[in-house]
Amino acid sequence: MTGAAEDAIVREMHVAAAPSDVFPYFAEAEKLAAWKAVTAQAHAVPGGTFRMDVTGRGDVAIGSYIEVDPPHRVVFTWAWEGDTTPGSKPGVVEVTLTPDGDGTLVRLIHRGVAPENQQHSAAGWAHYLDRLARAVSGQDPGPDPWAEPVTTRSD
Questions:
Q1: Residue 121 to residue 67: CA distance in whole angstroms
Q2: How far apart are CA 30 and CA 115, in angstroms?
Q3: Within-domain flag for 43
Q4: Does residue 153 lie in a domain region?
Q5: What is residue 88's predicted lDDT score, i.e. its pLDDT?
Q6: What is the pTM assigned to this prediction?
Q7: Three-state SS across the chain?
Q8: Which of 89, 81, 91 minimizes the C-alpha distance to 40?
Q9: 71 burial level (CB within 10 Å; 0-12, 13-18, 19+)
Q10: pLDDT in tens, 51-67
Q11: Is residue 106 part of a domain?
Q12: Torsion angles phi and psi, residue 86, rounded to 5
């Protein structure tokens, strides 16, 4: 389900895992990297920060955790590192995890998205939340087609 209210993107989806299994995917660097980033750093406490290289091409998301209530809710700011657009300010992402039958209802609201970025941001959340659903259900989400392939050096 998708909705947009002025400057908000809303996504809801059911995932086949308990809230306690889903929550770490928003709070732990290794789990963030499993579905949302090439590399990630995270310190999920109020005032703690995260930094995710989403694509490996300089698309680096940064933010601060505002509220951390495992396994029910996490709220954090969201911005793109190096964004110098006049008047730009971080958005706020609120994720609520509610038990739902044999899994969890994930509700994500991203507020503060500039109108010119809404379509792209909504598509991004749809793409990555699909990857989250696979990861939390124990499936390998596979390589992210939006990211640079990870290469290894052979010396």
A1: 22
A2: 32
A3: yes
A4: no
A5: 81
A6: 0.90
A7: CEEEECCEEEEEEEECCCHHHHHHHHCCHHHHHHHCCCEEEECCCCCCEEEEECCCCCCEEEEEEEEEECCCEEEEEEEECCCCCCCCCCEEEEEEEEEECCEEEEEEEEECCCHHHHHHHHHHHHHHHHHHHHHHCCCCCCCCCCCCCCCCCCC
A8: 81
A9: middle
A10: 999 999 999 999 999 99
A11: yes
A12: -55, 135
Token pair of 77, please?
A: 């700011």
- Give the closest residue to 104 by CA, choosing from 4, 19, 7, 34: 19
Which contacts of 2-7 are long-range, i.e. CB under 8 A and separated by 24 or more positions?
Answer: 2/122, 2/126, 4/118, 4/122, 7/91, 7/111, 7/112, 7/113, 7/114, 7/115, 7/118
Number of domains into which the chain is organized:
1
List the domain range (segments joined by +) for residue 16: 2-136
pLDDT tens track for 82-134: 988 877 889 999 999 999 999 999 999 999 998 888 999 999 999 999 999 99
Q: Is residue 145 part of a domain?
A: no
